[in-house]
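Blinded run. Sample ID left blank on purpose so nobody reads anything into the name before looking at the predicted structure. Input follows.
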Amino acid sequence: MVAIFIDITRYFFLLCGFYFFYSSIKLNKALYSNDDNNKDFYFNAQRVTILLSHLVGFIIIVLTKENTLDLTILYIEQVLFFMVIWGIISKLHYGTNLLLWNISLYFIQISFIILTRLDFGYGVRQFRMALLGYVVALIIPKIFHKMTFLAKLEWVYLVLSIGLLLLVNDTINGSKNWMTIGTFSFQPSEFVKIFYVLFIASFFRKNFNRNKLLISAFFTAGLVLFLVFQKDLGTALIFSILYITLVYIETNQPVFFLGGLAAGSVAAFIGYKFFAHVRVRVEAWANPWIDIDNKGYQITQSLFAIGAGGWLGAGLTKGLPNKIPVVMTDFIFSAISEEFGNLFSILLIATIMIFFLTAIRMSIEVKDHFSFLVSAGISIILAFQQILIIGGVTKFIPSTGVTLPFISYGGTSLIASCIMLGILQGVYLNGNIRDEDEEDEEDKEINTREANRKRKTTTK
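Blinded prediction complete.
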């Protein structure tokens, strides 16, 4: 009976994924057309979709696991988490972008389900980190709106970036970019992404010139090289693409973008020649089948899982995702594809694209140049990070060891993603408040002109 129920829920999760994608398009349209009725309807419809998907996922997990009481308590705590977040958004942050909040929470509930299914302890820890992350995300928009001096701290951001990269003392999964204090470990480089974006945005906000280009290129090259030595190839790639793209946006000259890509290609070739860990990643990607039990084991197991899932998936708890090394972090997309299906994964990618396009649109519409660069930079980070992980698990590109924002297990990654979400909401809030202020000024001018006209008419 349980097996039949799990088979049926494959269609349910697919339907939820499709409706969430569809409602994201409609909610985005309502937000930008100031259609309050549709905005409220689709915002609430997405809330129901998230809660239903979360409920069915936990019903399956409870039916297939032994620790029923612990799972039930965790489920109730997570439902309260969603309700409190939505309550705070409705009361204090209704002027922010509701779609970005909901998409992130949709990803979070997928994370809760798949991680709890894989390992209860990891699911609990992810939930705790989500609590902390969203507390921070809900505070940041107000801070970003009020503290205008943040745009002038470029050298502070640079010092923090360098300092955090030096703040490492441990090697985990081959990467030397971890800081361990007792039983607690975190990746400082996750926060360096944020400070680096703030540095570039602050440095470029006024009077962009050749000197600023050379100085920023020098520091960026240093940070990237340091990350390569730490074997954090994913973050090194993100920094490189981020810098090239922001310089292109700032100058609007394709020569910088093409030149940056050419320089990056040369650097990648040198890295392949001189760094053994780079060669291992590339060789495992190029032909994993010739060494399937060693170098190619990770990527081949990922491909087997994606293929085994098919279009509709094996069903939650019916796959074998634990056979994939580091499945809860780098290869979680493979686990989702195996148990939820490739159609669901395609819808997930489409929803990720909506998140990115919404954030980019916010960047384009904001009038403050610092906020524009920050928003664009964060959008690029989140989008490129998703391209790296999805491309890596599907063998489109070599695996780089990055996480899927809001979904992969990892406290540092999740909190960093929440901080970036909060900053995006702060940018959106700034834009809305400025627009409202401008409308108020226009209304005042119209009222003043009307009063003067009446006064003149009365005098005559």
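Unblinding after everyone has recorded impressions. The chain has one domain: 2-459.
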